[in-house]
Amino acid sequence: MNIINSEIFTNTQKNSSFQDLTANIVAEFQQIKAVEAIGLGGSLATDTNDRLSDIDLYCLSDKIIPLELRCNIIQKFNPLKLNLNLSFWDPGDDWVDGKTGIEVDMIYWQKSWIEGQINRVLTLYRANIGYSTSFWFTMKNMKVLFDRNGWLKNLQDKCHRPYPAELKKAIIAKNHPLLRDVIPSYYAQIKKAVERDDLVSVNHRITAFLASYFDVLFAINELPNPGEKRVFTNALKNCKKLPTDFKKNIETLLHFKGENNRRFFESIDQLIDSIDYLLRSEGIDPAKTLALKKNHE
After folding, report:
1. What DSSP character marks residue 6?
2. Hey, which of 14-18, 44-48, 150-154, 198-202 has the most confident mean pLDDT?
3. Alpha carbon distance 287, 181 (integer Å)
4. Are 106 and 94 in contact (CB under 8 A)?
5. φ and ψ at 238, to 5 degrees?
6. How many angstroms separate the Cα of 242 from the Cα of each of 134, 172, 267?
7. With the C-alpha atoms ordered 189, 194, 200, 205, is the resulting torsion angle positive or negative?
C-alpha cells in the first residue's frame, strides 16, 4: 500500500523537488518484497526543514536489504556522491541526487529492533544517559509513506500515548544527579577542565551535560526528546515549563571562550537551580533524585 501524497508535505513543500524525489525513491524501494514499510523522518517530518535539510527515509524490514539490490536502485538516481553501507550510527546509504542535488539519507531498521526500542521506553520504562526518548520521538512523528501490511501504523499507534509517569521518574533518576549532585558530576568535570584550560574537555563535558539536561527538561514537560538536532529551538517552542532565563543561560554556556569563568559557572548554576525548581513543582525533591533510581534499574 503506497500512501505517499501531497498531504504528507506542508504547503511550502508541495510540488517541490523534495516531494518528487521522495515519491520516486519510495516507488523503487517498495517493489522489494522484503520491505515492510517506509517512513519519512527528520526535519521534513516535523515541518522544520530549511535550505540545508536532507531527506531522511527509514526503510523497515525483517532483515537488512542486500547491498547489491540497494545499489542498483540508488544508481537510478545518478548520484553525484554516494556512500553505501555506512554503519557509524544506524545502517544506511547516503547519496546526493544527480538531478536536484538533494542529499538523501536512507536508514535501514529491522522491525524487531525498533519494536524493542519502543518497548524499552514505553513498556519497561528504561532510561539512558541522554536521548532516552529520541526513538519514540522519531517514530511518533514519522510520516508513513508505504505500509505493506499496516505494521508501521500499528507501531505508531503505540507511540501516540500519554507520557508514562514511571518513565518520567526513570529519566530524572538517571540524568538529574549527573548535572551537579554526585561526585563525578558534569559540573565537577567541567570545573576541572576549565581550571586545566583543557578546552576540548570543556566542550566534551558541556555536550554531555546538555544531553542529560535536556532529557530531564523534556521529561518534566512529558514530551519525547527530539535528539541532538534543533533541541534548543524545540524546547523553546514546545516546553510549557521552562527554567528561568533558560535561553540566556544556554547561550552563555555555549558561547564560553574561557574569558569569563565566573559568568560561565553562574549560568550553569542558574540552569540547574531553575530545573531543580521545576522538579519541586512536580513534587520531586531534587536532592533525592539519585534515590529514585532504585525503583528504575
Report:
1. G
2. 150-154
3. 8
4. yes
5. -110, -20
6. 19, 16, 15
7. positive
Q: Which cell is 142 given?
A: 514519522
Identify residue 7 by its one-letter amino acid code.
Answer: E
Pairing status of strand 55-61 against strand 103-110: parallel
Closest-CA residue to 252 (of 238, 271, 275):
271
Residue 257 DSSP class: -
Task: Look up residue 164 and give its three cell numbers.
Answer: 508514562
Fold classified for 6-159 = Beta Polymerase; domain 2 (3.30.460)
> Within 13 Å, how many C-alpha atoms sit on residue 88's CB side?
6
DSSP H stretches of helix in the chain: 17-29, 42-45, 67-75, 111-122, 134-141, 151-159, 165-180, 186-195, 199-220, 231-238, 246-254, 261-281, 289-292
Residue type, 83: N
Domain ranges of the chain: 6-159, 165-295
Q: What are phi and psi of 162, to 5 degrees?
A: -60, 155
Residue type, 151: W
Average pLDDT over residues 124-128: 96
The DSSP output letter for 286 is G
The model carries a pTM of: 0.90
